[in-house]
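hey can u run this one w/ alpha-D-galactopyranose bound, need the structure tokens asap thx
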Amino acid sequence: MVEQEVETGPARELLARHAQAFSVVFGAGAAPRTFFSPGRVNLMGAHLDYSGGPVMPAAIDRGTFFAARLRSDRRVLCASSTERDAFELDLDGPAFQRRGRWVDYPAGVIELLRSLAPDAPGLELYFGGNLPVGAGLSSSASICVGTALVIDRLWHLSLTPMQRVEAALRAEREFVGVHCGIMDPYAVGLARPHRILWLDCKDRTSAHLPLDSSRVAVGVADTGVRRELAQGAFNERVAQAAAAFRELAPAVPGATCLRDIPVEVLEARRRDLDPTLARRAEHVVREVARTFRARDALARGDLPSFGAAMFEAHASLRDLYDVSCAELDVLVDAAAESGRVFGSRLTGAGFGGCVVMLIDEPHAAEVVELVGRRFAARFGRRPSVEIFGTDRGPREITL
Ligand code: GLA
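ok here u go:
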């Protein structure tokens, strides 16, 4: 993975402004080092990671900006261009505690890594970015994996990309307390440009599959809907998938996760299962098969079949997993009716947030306009609909 190179384009300009803002917040002195860490969309394998299934995410060219410099004492000062509150952590003090605020994400990573560098100096860290928070584009993995890289570089830890991914995952699970699967930090940390990551969440094997950007544009439409209770509803889905597996596992010797349950076993046992658990399990076992089919379609360059699997995934998320909402459905329906979109579905956990669209490239502008218009006609406001590029993953950008 290339992690440091001279970069041109919008990310560089935005980072330069971010570095200027850093100096306003923390005062004159050495110029900060600057970093970028992307967000991600998930194209196939919806709600499969915590059931051991395969997923197909791609990193996007929107993400988190970091400006950072060392201090001469042992304090870590954290501020953000998008959040009002700033925080101070003391490297000589006891273990950091969760505060229920944005700083928990970077603080969780720093807490994990500080034992690797017991005498490391303090830091000034300034966060920002152009990724909507809570929209299903993985702003949390973006900030966690990015923080791991910043700390790695400033404290000279010589971590591997996998160690940074693991630190991010543990920070989110153990420090922040989200029962998230492994997809997001892997999608961010192992990203490559013009590639979709194929990640098998059972054995953690991965591959990079080409996405032909001359044929297809990645569009993202944001409903603007943010559900306060989404975290609880997500954790409930994780618990339901685990409960369905406990019911079905005795019928399949050697099964270790819901992904191992064949659809025939589910059908045979369906009547003994709680109906909600049966619908959750049906989504998972059919989405596993669909995701393998989608991978084969992509390998053949068959974008219509890949896209059809995305539309089916959305219907299943809506009808069996109950994680969609009217705003997401209107966007996916508009994409389907445009006739210019190979496939579309909600991305991330759902309950609001964004849909992702694989658009027939020459028609990208037309689709952006049409989808926005259809949404506005129904809900009386214009959603943000944008075309995103793919991204090469977290890196230092020298200004
Ligand atoms: C969230 C979680 C991921 C994954 C998706 C659903 O983004 O963080 O681990 O479960 O939802 O596919």
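The chain has a mean pLDDT of 96. anyway lmk if its weird
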